Amino acid sequence: MSYCLGINTADGLVLASDSRTSSGADQVNTCQKMHQFVIPGERIFVILTTGSLSLSQSIITLLRQDFDAGKGLAAVANMYEAARVLGSMVRRIADLDRAALEKDNFRFNVNLLLGGQIKGAPHELYMVYPQGNPLRSTPDSPYLQIGESKYGRPILDRGISHHSTTIHQSAKYALLSLEATMRSNSTVGPPVDLLLYNRDDLRVSHYRRFYSHDPDFIEIHSSWEKALRNAVHQLPDLRFDCGDIAPGIEPPTWQP
Predict the structure, then answer these.
(1) Which of 76, 116, 190, 236 could form a disulfide with 45 if both were Cys (CB 3.0 to 4.6 A apart)?
(2) SS3 letters for the chain?
(3) What is the pLDDT of residue 38?
(4) Residue 186 confidence (pLDDT)
(5) What angle do CA 72, 74, 76 make, to 5 degrees?
(6) Is residue 34 within 8 Å of residue 15, measured between CB atoms?
(7) Are 99 and 149 in contact (CB under 8 A)?
(8) Mind listing the domains of the chain with CATH numbers?
(9) Which tens digit of pLDDT belongs to each residue from 40-52?
(10) CA 145 to CA 88: how far, in whole Å?
(11) What is the structure's pLDDT at 241?
(12) pLDDT under 50 in the chain at which residues?
C-alpha cells in the first residue's frame, strides 16, 4: 500500500508521497513514487504513483522516453491534455499486462496524481484512475489523494481551503496527513517526499526528502502530538444526564 496526495492552493501546489513498497509481510522495500518532468521556464509536471510498482514503473518509463523525444508531456498544450496523455499510457500498459495479471488473479491496480503548469496556463492538479480517465481538483475540492487515504483525510478536510490556506501552511498539513497515515498503517512509511511548486515559477520551487530520523520531521511529529493533547485538555468537561460520577461510586444501573 502507498499514500500520496496533492493540494491545489491559490499560490501553487503541494505534492507529497511516502516511499514504502511491499510484496508481503516479509518483503518491505522503499521506492520513490514522485517523478518530475521539467522544461525550465516552459512547463513542469510532477507525477505521483500508487498501486503495482511494476505497472507504475512501466508507465513512467514510457512517459520519460516520449518526453525526452519531445513528445507526450513535452508537446501538450494544457494540463487537461497532459492528464489525457497519462490516461492513454495507463491504457497502453493495460493492453500489454492486464490479461496476464488477471489470469493469475492479480488486479490491474495503478493510480496517478498529476500536478503542474504550462506557460500561459494556470497550475492544475489531476487524478488519473486505473481506467485512464482523469479527475481535476476544484476550489471546492482542492486536494486529491491516492492509495491509503482514509487516515490522512480528516486533517485535510478540517484545514485545507483553496483560497485561504497558503502553500507553506498546506505543506504542513500534507506532512501531518502522511504522519497520521504512517502512524495507523504500517504499509505506508518513510522516506517522505515533499514538493512545493509556486505558481508561474515553471521550475521546482522547493523539494525535500524526510527520513524517519530527520530532526525537523521528528519535531513536527512531537509538536503536533503535544498540541493535540493540550487541545483535548482545554475542551470543556462533559456533562451527563445522571450527573457527575464521583470516584469510587458505582454508576446507577440503567433500567428500561
Answers:
(1) 116
(2) CCEEEEEEECCEEEEEECCEEECCCCCEEECCCEEEEEECCCEEEEEEEEECHHHHHHHHHHHHHHHHCCCHHHCCCCHHHHHHHHHHHHHHHHHHHHHHHHHCCCCCCEEEEEEEEECCCCCEEEEECCCCCEEECECCECEEEEECCCCCHHHHHHHCCCCCCCHHHHHHHHHHHHHHHHHHCCCCCCCEEEEEEECCCCCCCEEEEECCCCHHHHHHHHHHHHHHHHHHHCCCCCCCCCCCCCCCCCCCCCCC
(3) 98
(4) 85
(5) 65
(6) yes
(7) no
(8) 3-233 (3.60.20.10)
(9) 999 999 999 999 9
(10) 21
(11) 78
(12) 23, 256
Cell of 169: 501552511
pLDDT of 25 reads 54
CA distance 123 to 116: 5
This prediction has a pTM of 0.90
